[in-house]
Design goal:
This protein is α/β, with parallel strands linked by helices and 260 residues long. Helices cover 36% and strands 25% of the residues. The chain has 10 helices and 9 strands. It has helices at 9-12, 16-23, 33-49, 70-73, 87-97, 107-116, 123-133, 164-168, 172-184, 217-226; strands at residues 55-60, 77-84, 136-139, 156-162, 186-198, 202-205, 208-211, 229-238, 250-258. The protein has a 7-stranded mixed sheet, sandwiched between helices. It has a two-stranded antiparallel ribbon with strand order 6-7. A hairpin with a 2-residue loop joins strand 6 and strand 7. Helix 3 packs across helix 6. The mean pLDDT is 91.
Length: 260
């Protein structure tokens, strides 16, 4: 398929449940556990354990209905605000929070966290903390200057964004434009944590292919620096998955501090 015919995540939307099943489930044949689940969770736990990223407000701006990046983070912030571009993603997320029958089971992600902490007794407590934290879910429009208009959010101490910029940007100019909007939600001195994939051109969900922006580390370094960020850390994991649903070359975990 010509890449120009790929759909755009925030304009056309995808089946958020299928996206979770393809890329973030605990199925035995799920090819992406090492790259998309374990690698981000390991780095998030390490980052927050250092103790310098914490505060009143954490904002999550991530693709689909994923919650696994928040298991470590929610313990270091008083309020967690999740921002989504699609109603379907919000519905899928709320099904899990409200314990509806048939909701996606994130138990494997919670178990990864407690196993890394070597304390299996915390498993139930981890789930309870996560669900109590996810009480503020806001719909957004990325084309507006204030993406949550008419709601004006208080400036965040930290933003986590997992794969959203990859999915919504048609080109590098879009990346800069959306990064600038994300930055406006963050207070000076606050931290932006990006979970991303290098070299991706498409994401398959169901029978449909969705556009992804292909870029490398040099580009993201320049983009962050140009928008007033200082990079604290970048960790990169070369692709291990053998599956053609997604054509990335590496997974990146990026921590940057907003200086201005």
């Amino acid at each position: 398929m010509d890449s120009s015919n790929y759909k755009l995540y925030h304009k056309h939307g995808f089946d958020s449940r299928q996206h979770l099943e393809h890329y973030l489930s605990d199925k035995p044949d799920m090819a992406y556990a090492e790259d998309l689940l374990i690698f981000p969770i390991e780095n998030l736990k390490k980052t927050f354990a250092e103790g310098h990223i914490k505060g009143d407000i954490l904002i999550d701006l991530s693709i689909g209905s994923m919650v696994h990046p928040l298991y470590s983070a929610c313990e270091f912030f008083k309020n967690v605000i999740v921002i989504k571009t699609r109603d379907r993603c919000i519905m899928e997320l709320k099904r899990w929070v409200d314990k509806h029958t048939g909701a996606f089971d994130w138990g494997h992600a919670a178990k990864l966290h407690v196993d890394m902490e070597e304390n299996s007794d915390q498993l139930l407590d981890k789930e309870v903390k996560m669900k109590s934290a996810l009480q503020h879910v806001v719909k957004c429009n990325l084309e507006k200057e204030n993406i949550t208009d008419p709601i004006v959010l208080p400036a965040a101490d930290c933003i986590i964004s997992a794969w959203l910029l990859d999915a919504v940007c048609k080109d590098q100019d879009d990346y800069i434009r959306y990064l600038r909007k994300f930055s406006r939600l963050l207070k000076p001195g606050g931290h932006l944590i990006l979970i991303a994939s290098y070299g991706t051109t498409y994401v398959t969900v169901g029978k449909e292919k969705f556009h992804a922006l292909s870029y490398d580390e040099e580009f993201v370094r320049k983009a962050l620096s140009g928008e007033g960020f200082v990079i604290d850390n970048i960790e990169v994991k070369e692709r291990t998955a053998v599956c053609d649903l997604l054509d990335y070359k590496a997974t990146a975990f990026i921590v940057a501090r907003k200086e201005k």
